[in-house]
Amino acid sequence: MSTAAQAAAPDPAGSPATHAAPAPARNPVTQAAHTAPDGVVESVAFAAADSGTGGLTWGQRAIWDAVRKTVPDDHYFNFGRVLPVPGRRTVAEVLEAVAGLTALHGALRTRLDLSGPEPRQRLEAAGTLPVLVTEENPESVLERLNAERFDYESQWPVRVALVRSGDRVTHVVLGFCHLAADGLGSEIAVRDLRMLLLRGGRLARPAPPRPLDLAAWQESAEGRRVARRAAELWEAVPHGVMFERAVGAAEDPPIWRARLASPALDLASRALAAAHRTSTSTVLLAATAVLVARATDQDRCTVLPIVNNRFRPDVSRLVSTLSQEGVFSLDGVDRPLPQLLRGADAAAMRAYRSAFHDPRDRAEGSWVQPLACFNDMRFADPGPSSYAPAEIEAALAATELSWPLRQSKLNCRFCVHVSTSTTGTLEFSVTADTGFFSRADIERGLTELERSLVTEATGTRQVRFETMT
């Protein structure tokens, strides 16, 4: 939902003003390098024309709340991108482009001020960014960049590494703090970095908006009206926690993730989307809702999908965290899947509209908190398509289940992540507190969800999800 599904706009009126600062000047590169066990660390200086302090945006507040609840395992929220470098570029040329990117997007030079009663953001005009230069595999470098938590007050919210072969840089690796960007925000940064590489470190266009500008608009009268409309959608949902009762002793550590890499689930969700005129994201969200409801023995399921909130033209170029939780509530989960999907479409639209909200309203009110979320992290929904039943069934042989993560703390008890691997395979992951949803439940839930959607897509029989025992 944060990327694959677009939210319905609450109201485009009164949008935040675009920051009109001049394009940053060419940045000098500081060549004071020192060696590290895995390469050389260069330093690149950046300089921009603007600075300032202010409150957090709604998206920043939401992710900061999640980060605080996950410490010391908050590296969980780190993520990154790998950019193949176009043409032949030296280290100095790529460092100049990195400096230009940091100057261009205020989020990449913004840190937190935690000295007061509420966190504030502090935008710096200039600074120096450490950049690792190495010859290691880019994916391994990205994993290492994301392995450590950020110091939100002192460290820049982006980590950078250059992978080189001889005198040529082949890849730029960016590790993002989630306070600085979400998935689509990182995509904007990567696109702009590529253009800076192609154009010698400069972009001749107006500066993009900044998180500070959005935060100021959200505090305005129009921003408060938008927040109030979203709050009304949350307040209409009955209270309930989906994973309220412990099922037994938790594993050590308690948080585990299982990842189902499933070409069959990809084909089945696309076939069902075509058959029922919906998106694959809605198909997978509805299936998740049924899994959760059956696992918790409830007829109504409430799940919080992560919505990208990039429906406003004024934030289309904004590097920041805009994605937030919406509220998705679905009754009658024992209905056949075709009927569920009709209800899910309307419930998903309400969820998109509720996501652009002020987390302070949520904290001060008595909004539902089901402790279950759904995050479709794909940059685009692959769209509906028809497949022969035999093709879908045959794809089951390629399914793989792995356990890529375990840790001590998480801000949720049940989280679904939908993504696409580097080879194009659909990955459907469940991260759960094993005291409330055991490892056996996780594995059984994933395999039953896959089999149920495949069975429905191939027309073998009309499916009702089985109650988990």
From TrEMBL:
<dbReference type="GO" id="GO:0008610">
    <property type="term" value="P:lipid biosynthetic process"/>
</dbReference>
<protein>
    <submittedName>
        <fullName>Condensation domain-containing protein</fullName>
    </submittedName>
</protein>
<dbReference type="Pfam" id="PF00668">
    <property type="entry name" value="Condensation"/>
</dbReference>
<feature type="domain" description="Condensation">
    <location>
        <begin position="67"/>
        <end position="319"/>
    </location>
</feature>
<feature type="region of interest" description="Disordered">
    <location>
        <begin position="1"/>
        <end position="33"/>
    </location>
</feature>
<dbReference type="InterPro" id="IPR023213">
    <property type="entry name" value="CAT-like_dom_sf"/>
</dbReference>
<dbReference type="GO" id="GO:0003824">
    <property type="term" value="F:catalytic activity"/>
</dbReference>
<feature type="compositionally biased region" description="Low complexity">
    <location>
        <begin position="1"/>
        <end position="17"/>
    </location>
</feature>
<dbReference type="InterPro" id="IPR001242">
    <property type="entry name" value="Condensation_dom"/>
</dbReference>
